[in-house]
Amino acid sequence: MKKQNMVGNNIRRLRTEAGLTQEGLALKSGLSQGYINQLESGKRKFTQKSLELIADALSVPIVALFGEARPSHTRTPVVNERVEKYRKRRPGKKEFLVLLNDLPDHIVEHYFILLRMESALWKKKLPS
Questions:
Q1: How confident is the model at residue 79, as a pLDDT?
Q2: In the CATH scheme, what is the code of domain 1-70+83-89?
Q3: pLDDT, tens only, 64-88
Q4: Which of 17, 38, 74, 127 could disulfide-link 43, Cβ–Cβ 3.0 to 4.6 Å?
């Protein structure tokens, strides 16, 4: 008997409904495209953290990844109440580097100078 891959199927469905490729979801979630592919195909097991990242990237509650898919016209609307800690989530270093990589060198240098200045100001404000 074939094992069901409910979570992987839901990730694929929600990702395509959001108009995202596996690569696009990977960039938004900070996970790799290969990992997304393996989750969707059922070749890899998920972790709580990976599902949290995927749900956040898809702007859906994490429970949406576990429900049985129903036609969209029969779905009950779900209010996406995010937990406060996710709202304050710092952007990942990987996401930051991807953004920097897309910018011209002179813009990257500009932001690097600003970050250095900001860092110096924070060091002065923090108590020793």
A1: 47
A2: 1.10.260.40
A3: 888 775 555 555 554 444 445 455 5
A4: 38
